[in-house]
Design goal:
Blueprint lengths: L6 H25 L2 H13 L8 H8 L16 H6 L2 E5 L2 E4 L7 E3 L8 H17 L6 H15 L17 H16 L17 H4 L7 H21 L8 H9 L17 H8 L2 E3 L11 E6 L5 E5 L21 E4 L11 H4 L12 H10 L1
Parallel strand pairs: 6-7
Antiparallel strand pairs: 1-2, 2-3, 4-5, 5-6
Length: 372
């Protein structure tokens, strides 16, 4: 039996429809044309964006998670997951829902004396609370619950997913689940991108490149590398060092001992191609770095920033080299392909496949696609 919509859901749906028609009617009154009114109403419907698919709001929430206030949390409840489910970081270990009718709050904290099993059990409880703690009027509640249910159904060896007929109780939900099912069917076995993250990141297409020749990944990396190359040429930035773990992977896994996959572009250097392949892009189109000598780079997934240094030294030799927690400022030492990402970044850690399991790192998937 179909599940009935709540009164709040019905009101929200009616309000959205009325808003679209108000825009249409205002336009028709000013122009005196019923055809214009109908076209405006249709345009309003076509431009509708679900709250959880609004990438601008998502990145605003994600930016609130700082290393000193949300530190060393399990991948299953990383800032990426919290932000996708409507939470922002408002204090040390404290997150709050951003929806004005919800404002639910949670404290996410692990005692250091917990053993591995207890830590995993507590993590599972927190993961469920990311959905259930939202108030009933909050749209993130049903979205998070449905997303976690879909994640549970996803088999590591089978990309099929079963959608309960009783859940398809509205056009809005059916449309969402259709997109989720489509995403799951396209999902790779080695790296499973949570379906609810796919609308938020264009970069996720690299991880879900199911083309036989890796063309989606190659195009994405090439476009990013060309932009980086322009700034390397303009500012004389120094090169980047390839981590030993990458050299080993290329030699032993993808049969590319000389890492030739980074030298195939005719439009950019090896360094620019490597940076793009490992998830780095220009922080600004002009590569502005303020008082820092070099090009400011960023990761669009974890929002980490680092500097591709110029030939001139920019690091004070007396400044401390190690910190327990990464501060939310630019790292003026030359960028490191892997270490400069945040620990929960999909480029270096992959995605959680539950509380105690995770996929292989994203950079390995990208390199495998480039090798096709």
């Amino acid at each position: 039996m179909p599940t009935m919509k709540t009164a709040d859901e019905l009101i929200a749906s009616v309000d959205a429809t009325l808003d679209g028609w108000r825009v249409a009617l205002d336009s028709s009154l000013s122009q005196g044309n019923e055809t214009v009114a109908l076209e405006a109403a249709a345009a309003a419907d076509n431009k509708k964006t679900y709250l959880w698919e609004d990438s601008d709001l998502y990145f605003m929430r994600l930016a609130t998670f700082k290393p000193d206030t949300y530190f060393a949390k399990p991948l299953a409840i990383s800032p990426l997951v919290c932000a996708a489910f409507g939470w922002e970081n408002v204090g040390r270990d404290i997150i709050k829902c951003t929806h004005k009718q919800c404002k639910a709050a949670l404290c996410i904290k692990f005692h250091p004396a917990l053993d591995k099993e207890s830590h995993a059990n507590l993590c599972a409880k927190y993961l469920n609370l990311l959905a259930s703690s939202h108030k009933d009027v909050c749209p993130f509640q049903s979205f998070a619950k449905r997303s976690l249910k879909v994640m549970e159904r996803k088999s590591k060896t089978n990309n099929a997913v079963i959608i309960d007929l009783e859940e398809e109780n509205s056009n809005e939900q059916a449309s969402l689940m259709d997109r989720v099912e489509s995403a799951l069917k396209c999902s790779t076995v080695d790296l499973y991108v949570p379906p609810y993250m796919l609308p938020l990141y264009n970069e996720m297409k690299r991880f879900e490149d199911f083309t036989g020749d890796g063309s989606v990944t190659k195009q994405s990396v090439e476009e990013g590398a060309i932009k980086i190359q322009r700034q390397i040429d303009a500012k004389g930035a120094v090169g980047v060092e390839m981590p030993d773990v990458v050299s080993t992977y290329c030699r032993e896994v993808i049969s590319d001992p000389n890492t030739e996959l980074f030298d195939k572009s005719e439009n950019c250097s090896r360094d620019a191609y490597m940076l793009s392949a490992f998830g780095w892009s220009l922080c600004d189109e002009d590569g502005s770095a303020g008082d820092v000598m070099g090009v400011v780079m960023k990761c669009n997934l974890c929002l980490s920033k680092s500097v591709l240094a110029s030939a001139a030294p920019t690091m004070n030799a007396e400044s401390p080299k190690k910190k327990k927690r990464r501060i939310d400022t630019l790292n003026e030492a030359n960028i490191k392909l892997l270490e400069s990402h945040r620990a929960y970044c999909p480029n270096v850690s992959g995605f959680a496949r539950g509380v105690s399991d995770q996929s292989k790192p994203g950079w390995k998937v990208v390199l495998s696609n480039l090798r096709k």
